[in-house]
Amino acid sequence: MVASGCFSNAPVLNASSGVGHVINVGGVNSYVTGSPLAVLAILLVSDVYGFKAPLLRKIADKVADNGYYVLVPDFLHGDPYDPKNVSRPTRVWLKDHEPGKSSEEAKSIIEALKRKNVSAVGVAGFCWGAKTVTNLAKTELIQASVLLHPSYIVVNDIRGVNVPIAILGAEHDSLSPPKLVKEFEEVLKAKPQIDSYVKVFPNVSHGWTLRYDPTDPKAAMAAGNAHKIMINWFDKHLKK
Ligand SMILES: *[C@@H]1O[C@H](CO)[C@@H](O)[C@H](O)[C@H]1NC(C)=O
Ligand SMILES: *[C@@H]1O[C@H](CO)[C@@H](O)[C@H](O)[C@H]1NC(C)=O
Ligand SMILES: *[C@@H]1O[C@H](CO)[C@@H](O)[C@H](O)[C@H]1NC(C)=O
Ligand SMILES: *[C@@H]1O[C@H](CO)[C@@H](O)[C@H](O)[C@H]1NC(C)=O
């Protein structure tokens, strides 16, 4: 269960980064950005570093610029993984933050949004956040899903998916190696009634869409391409 790829390249967290702000939605503090009057909403489920990561908020702002009300919920409840805390190794931290457990909270958020005239919801999850997305993708609550370098996802999770799903894997990834991503693809190919997109991106490592060095033009471009694919996927399935 423990793998270093999920926990490397810790970002410097910043509670005031991003153009949005933090409010409580459906019982969960969430960074929100974009017009609250938008009828299309997107939830971004963070990695182990949570909703104060500046690059995650920047991605949320970028998605919002495409006409969405975007939320990044604090599913870690103020307790992101802290690589400096040697008395709490990853395995201990993961016990308190079991991947996928936040799907119940995500459901409350989505129900709150739907009471406020949101007509369709897309959900994307990065690393740790992916399991919450596959749990939601088994329900009728959401209309599109995206996994970015997922962690802790097994073939059975993908078998249960009932909504359009895009999976963006990395060539160098011990958590979801290309071989496993290929298996996901096979499962989805056998379900042609569910629109799917699966791609293993060359020359990138686990975490490349979120914990990249923004001053490295190649890394920034690779991440930007992934964000674009995610946004296009939401446009295809929500703006119709
Ligand atoms: C945190 O984000 C705010 C808003 O973007 C910025 O003004 C501030 O300099 C950032 N703080 C750090 C320590 O980066
Ligand atoms: C480190 O983790 C331990 C065990 O969970 C916790 O009691 C302690 O408060 C943490 N220390 C810091 C500085 O967060
Ligand atoms: C929400 O939608 C209903 C039905 O379309 C409409 O009557 C109501 O005014 C809308 N409320 C807001 C806040 O947009
Ligand atoms: C692979 O990525 C590294 C790191 O971003 C970069 O330096 C290198 O040029 C890339 N190689 C290719 C073939 O694109």
Describe this structure in words.
This protein is of the alpha/beta class and 240 residues long. The protein has one domain (17-238): Rossmann fold, CATH 3.40.50. The chain has 7 helices and 8 strands, in the order βββαβααβαβαβαβα. The protein binds 2-acetamido-2-deoxy-beta-D-glucopyranose (NAG) (4 copies). One 2-acetamido-2-deoxy-beta-D-glucopyranose binds at residues 14, 16-17. The site of one 2-acetamido-2-deoxy-beta-D-glucopyranose (NAG) has 3 residues, from loops. This is Dienelactone hydrolase domain-containing protein.
Q: How many angstroms does the end-to-end distance come to? A: 39 Å
CATH architecture group name? 3-Layer(aba) Sandwich
Strand order of the largest sheet: 1-2-4-3-5-6-7-8
Under CATH at level 1, the class stands as Alpha Beta
What is the SS-derived class?
Answer: alpha/beta
The main β sheet shows up as: 8 strands, mixed
Return residue spans where pLDDT drops below 50 for at least 5 consecutive residues: none
- Name the overall outline: globular
Q: How big a fraction of the residues is strand?
A: 15-25%
- CATH topology assignment: Rossmann fold
Q: What is the number of beta strands?
A: 8
Domain Dienelactone hydrolase: 31-237
Protein name: Dienelactone hydrolase domain-containing protein
GO molecular function, one term: hydrolase activity
InterPro entries: AB_hydrolase_fold, Dienelactn_hydro
